[in-house]
Amino acid sequence: MTNLDLERMVDTSDEWIVARTGIRERRLATSNDTTVSMAATASRKALAIAGVDPMEIDLLILATDTPDKLMPASSSVLQAELGAMRAGAFDLDAACSGFVYALSVGTQFIRSGVYETVLVVGADSLTRYIDFTDRGTCILFGDGAGAVVLQASDADEGVLSTVLGSDGRGAQHLYVDGIRPTDVPNGNGHGATVPVPTMKMNGTEVFKFAVKVMGEAAVEAIDQAGLSVADIDLFIPHQANMRIIDASARRLELSRDKVFINIERYGNTSAASIPMCIAEAADCGRLQPGMNVVLVAFGAGLSWAANVVRWGSTGTRRRGE
Fold first, then answer.
1. Is 284's pLDDT higher than 90?
2. Which one of 16, 48, 118, 203 is CB 3.0 to 4.6 Å from 106, fit for a cystine?
3. Of 96, 173, 241, 307, which one is the catalytic site residue?
4. Are residues 274 and 205 in the same domain?
């Protein structure tokens, strides 16, 4: 869906959207797509690149705030879809911060020695909860999925630091009301007897929060990793708004060539945003083994999260092998 498409649906323009968000187009899930189907596609690609068989996965974490059903967890359905029958599986909901939260959780399972191979997925289909007559939200969001494989290694790489935060006092600034069972007979939004709830956002408050917290969380994560901004090779922020990304980069005094941006093509894909950036950065050669990378996100909650990651080699052998 391009900005020109939106011009025919709501009082907006391509120029207005680009100037305020940096977004030119976004992808929408079709009636044949689900959060799980998108997550499965991304997961298969990540497993193939890593050279990992699904039966090697010890744990599967799906970061999403748009599960296909209230229960079971979409991660369980994804586990079966992938054939990862040895893996434990659970969903994690921290909204747009979810992937960074899930990456941090997966890392701790490996560091503790409990597991050696963890699949971390971010997938969301938020456009199903968007009111396309509300120009404050309908211009921002798209659907998508991304995935990474974590493996135990003795190499000096992986997640170097983690910053997680939440301020529930701002929860009313970005939310989707719950869906009652009587509203949605089959639990997935189709055939609802009343309209499916849509996203509500106080854009001004969310913007102010994001500009402040993104830079602060990134700086804290860099300090925790024992690095300086000069040591950072690539900055991968949550793709919510170009003005927020620019403000965060200025806070770190990073040049544009060290900031990865794909918001113009996808919009805000929530928990999928950062892993989609990681995949594209790796594909185009901007993400190389040994690079120090900052991942930072904010989301509903209001939540925030940041990691410093030293990007590893594809197919790094695990401990004991």
1. yes
2. 118
3. 96
4. yes
